[in-house]
Write a structure and sequence with these properties.
By secondary structure, the chain is α/β, with parallel strands linked by helices. Helix content is about 50%, strand content about 15%. A five-stranded parallel sheet has the order 2-3-1-4-8, with helices on both faces. The longest helix is centred in the C-terminal third of the chain and has 18 residues. The radius of gyration is 18 Å and the shape is globular. The two termini are about 20 Å apart.
């Protein structure tokens, strides 16, 4: 697919749905780069607003400092402001949003108001045992933050980064007990969005248990199918 064709075909928001460890973040960055559109995460939006001292940032900062979840109305105001910028005119890729049915419904209203067109939604389907292997095996370099997996992409020297020799650590949220809690939260809060978007005929499903390259190819194929449908 030529780059010009890819940009022409996207021209809409893209949402990736799937459990933690499904590879959504990796694919969001790859797809956004390929299509030449913004890769958007609510975490980045929050940090940007706080850093630049915006009115929304001023509201979010004390909430974040208390370690509390920023409420939906504030997140959605940031989303609305961000996607109204000129660089989102040809589409954009969401990373980790929406997470709940309420967020999805509110996002639909924002997209309709801003005439962005309905989002193309791709569901990353992965067996739970593969998710556990991916996340419990993940190790991160303390120096350069390179990511490895002791099962599928181990370092050349056990416990040390190939790039800078930094110590490889397991993040607290990659421990089995924490992962199980995250998966339960996903099943309860986010998985209902699969039926929601499927009912709107804007969702396509892929097997995300394959290699990164195979999943990327599947994502592009799904986007092509969705472009013909919505």
């Amino acid at each position: 697919m030529a780059q010009a064709d890819a940009k022409r075909l996207l021209a809409r928001p893209v949402i990736f749905l799937g459990p933690p460890g499904a590879g959504k973040g990796t694919q969001a960055k790859l797809v956004a780069t390929h299509y030449g559109v913004p890769h958007l995460s609510t975490g980045d939006m929050l940090r940007e607003n706080v850093q630049f001292g915006t009115a929304l940032g001023a509201l979010a900062k004390p909430i974040m400092e208390r370690g509390e979840l920023v409420p939906d109305d504030l997140i959605l105001r940031m989303v609305q402001e961000r996607i109204a910028r000129a660089d989102c005119a040809r589409g954009f890729v969401f990373d980790g949003f929406p997470r709940t049915l309420a967020q999805a419904e509110a996002l639909d209203a924002i997209l309709e108001k801003q005439k962005s067109g309905p989002a193309a939604v791709i569901y990353f389907k992965v067996p739970e045992e593969i998710l556990m292997r991916r996340m419990t095996g993940r190790r991160t370099c303390k120096i350069g933050f390179e990511i490895y997996n002791i099962y599928d992409r181990p370092p050349k020297v056990e416990g040390r980064c190939d790039v800078d020799g930094g110590e490889l650590i397991q993040r607290p949220d990659d421990r089995p007990e924490v992962i199980r809690e995250r998966v339960v939260a996903y099943r309860t809060q986010t998985e209902p969005l699969v039926a929601y978007y499927r009912g709107r005929q804007t969702l396509d499903e892929i097997d995300a248990s394959a290699s990164v390259t195979a999943v990327t190819n599947a994502v592009f194929s799904a986007l092509g199918r969705l472009e013909c449908r919505i």
